[in-house]
Write a structure and sequence with these properties.
Helix content: 25-40%
Mean pLDDT: 96
Largest sheet: 3 strands, antiparallel
Distance between the termini: 18 Å
Strand content: 5-15%
Structural class: alpha+beta
Number of domains: 1
Oligomer: single chain
Length: 64
Amino acid sequence: MPKAKTHRGAVSRFRVTKNGKLLRRQTRLNHMLEKKTSTRKRRLGREVEVAASERRSVRRMLGL
């Protein structure tokens, strides 16, 4: 059986913490930023944990 390959797009989008949590960037911080408040932009700049329903597929793409 061939070696399992890591999904390169997933590697750039997700990060694994020391405790094994999966983190991702939030959406809506690429354009039309003038109309968004500083508070909202600051909140969107933080990484958040991947939803429970998506964890399995993300882990498979990362080869974990």
